[in-house]
Design a protein that fits this description.
The chain is of the alpha+beta class. The protein folds into 2 domains: 62 residues, no CATH class; 143 residues, no CATH class. Helices cover 18% and strands 47% of the residues. The chain has 5 helices and 15 strands. The protein has a 15-stranded antiparallel sheet that branches. The relative contact order is 0.08.
Length: 251
């Protein structure tokens, strides 16, 4: 009798598991996204497809639009109760970031892994408070090994930013800046962007992103014989140099 009961319970449990798997496999992605409360600075566009392969028309983050997001849920990660989603976003026909990322920790602290992004430099420049009007040219590449969301912004971050063919138009003149790079980290919940001081501009700068994604930065521009002449023309807008010949930069 006990053997029959165990067999019956086993068959019942197996049926329930198969039924739940069937329900989940047919569940639309739009139904799942309603479970997650998005911050006020994020707007999610039309969602379609299933949880296995879904599509999001666009996501707007602080005025920056990420177009054509395609997601794929790993079956084996779901079996391990640690779902991982691989997302591809953007394409050359759209203005905005383009790249790929793996999202995990949906049931705990959400994290991003192996994030690669290529975006127009001017999309970032448009969101900075600068002493003079600047148009940034070409593309900026962002690579993040791991980013864990937290309060106010992060609990873990390891990545880098590279602007390989950096150039800006200032006062009607296009200026070649050379390669600029920065390291990304997380300190006391804030995202830290620290500029690599080895550059032709003599630029050293550190920025932080904190509560409500408010950004602030502080650093110096120390002109050298490699500093473009057009940059020298902008220096009066930065105020007087200190006793080390440095011009203060802050926002």
């Amino acid at each position: 009798m006990k053997v029959l009961i165990k067999k019956y319970l086993g068959l019942t449990a197996g049926f329930v598991v198969l039924y739940l798997f069937f329900i989940i496999s047919l569940m639309p992605l739009s139904f799942v996204t309603h479970w997650f409360e998005t911050p006020k600075n994020i707007i999610v566009g039309k969602v379609s497809g299933s949880i296995w392969q879904g599509k999001i028309a666009a996501v707007v983050v602080d005025g920056v639009t990420i177009n054509k997001i395609e997601t794929e849920l790993s079956f084996f990660s779901l079996l391990a109760f640690s779902p991982k989603i691989v997302a591809n976003f953007g394409e050359p026909l759209f203005t905005g970031p383009e790249g790929r990322v793996t999202i995990s920790g949906l049931f705990a602290g959400i994290s991003l892994e192996n994030l690669t992004v290529s975006t127009q430099a001017n999309l970032i420049a448009e969101h900075l408070t600068l002493p003079v009007a600047v148009i940034a040219h070409d593309f900026i590449s962002i690579e993040i090994e791991r980013y864990v969301f937290g309060q106010p912004v992060c609990t873990e971050l390891n990545g880098s930013i590279v602007w390989q063919k950096a150039a800006v138009t200032v006062l009607g003149e296009k200026v070649i800046l050379g390669e600029l790079a920065a390291e990304l980290s997380c300190q006391k919940g804030k995202m830290i962007v620290e500029m690599n001081p080895k550059n032709d501009l003599g630029l050293s700068f550190t920025a932080s992103v904190g509560q409500s994604f408010h950004a602030s930065g502080d650093g110096y521009l120390t002109p050298t014989n490699k500093t473009p002449q057009a940059i020298h023309q902008v220096l009066p807008f930065l105020g007087p140099a200190d006793n080390q010949g440095r011009y203060r930069l802050a926002f």
